[in-house]
Design a protein that fits this description.
With 270 residues, the chain is an alpha/beta fold. It is 48% helix and 13% strand. A hairpin with a 4-residue loop joins strand 4 and strand 5. 29% of the residues are buried.
Length: 270
């Protein structure tokens, strides 16, 4: 809900020919707070929304609908056991109609087993304090309910290295690969592997996710680092990520080949 509200308010600002700094000045807030609001990572008070609606010269009937949407977004406000900069990713994941994720090294959180997530999150006490690992894992597992929603389309592209990086040891990675094998039987899930023999490609050295919301005619790309992330929605940038994503999908394995490669690695680990 926050994503939808923030996006619609941003579109109003842009239609009014205003930059984010102009809106932030009218609110007397730091531009970073407005940026977080527009991408769904923060909320504004009803009075602050009114200031923006007046600034954007919003017609009365549209303004009333947006006020109602804002009220609903605040009621549904969430607080997750993740860093502030990661909330946008989780908000996008919760409302998207489809997601495409590339990772050359690791299984994405949406498909991780509990033991794999524990082993991964324990590796860096600087990013996830030891006392917060259990809560972080619980949050991650809770997000996975969407995987079983047949209307949520999931494309996952993984480098072949994911099969061989023994996060948590042989037993943990074997269980994780079995989980991927099971999930890949679902009609709404497509897991592809980018084999070593595919050679170089434009996404080497990075990972990214793309979220599409059909009713909003909006697509977002998301790139994350250890302590920060970037949220991308400019059409020219989205075109680049979409192009690279399509290239990866074209060079990746089909479902039967993915299943065979997973099972072969599972047997090797047994």
């Amino acid at each position: 809900m926050r994503i939808r509200f923030g996006l619609q308010m941003r579109r109003l600002r842009e239609a009014a020919g205003l930059q984010s700094k102009d809106a932030a000045k009218a609110l007397r807030v730091n531009p970073s707070r407005l940026s977080r609001f527009e991408r769904g990572a923060a909320s504004l008070k009803a009075a602050e929304v009114d200031v923006l609606l007046k600034l954007y010269e919003t017609p009365d009937d549209h303004a009333e609908r947006l006020r109602a949407l804002g009220d609903e977004a605040r009621r549904r406000g969430f607080r997750l056991d993740v860093p502030d900069w990661a909330e946008t990713y989780i908000a996008l994941e919760a409302v998207a109609d489809e997601v495409k994720i590339y990772n050359g090294e690791l299984v994405p959180g949406l498909l991780q087993t509990e033991d794999y997530a524990h082993a991964l999150l324990r590796t860096s006490p600087k990013t996830v304090p030891p006392g917060s690992v259990d809560d972080a894992v619980a949050t991650r597992l809770g997000r996975q309910e969407r995987v079983n929603d047949p209307s949520f389309k999931i494309w996952i592209m993984l480098g072949e290295a994911v099969l061989h990086r023994a996060v948590g040891g042989a037993d943990v990675i074997r269980e994780q690969l079995l989980h991927l094998h099971t999930l890949n039987k679902q009609e709404n899930v497509c897991i592809q592997l980018i084999p070593y023999e595919a050679g170089g490609h434009a996404a080497l050295g990075t990972s990214f996710a793309m979220f599409r919301m059909i009713d909003l005619a909006a697509t977002f790309a998301y790139v994350e680092w250890l302590t920060d992330s970037v949220y991308i929605d400019q059409p020219e940038d989205i075109e680049v990520y979409g192009y690279v994503c399509n290239k990866l999908m074209a060079s990746g394995t089909d479902k039967p080949t993915t299943q065979r490669m997973l099972m072969r690695r599972i047997r090797d680990l047994s």
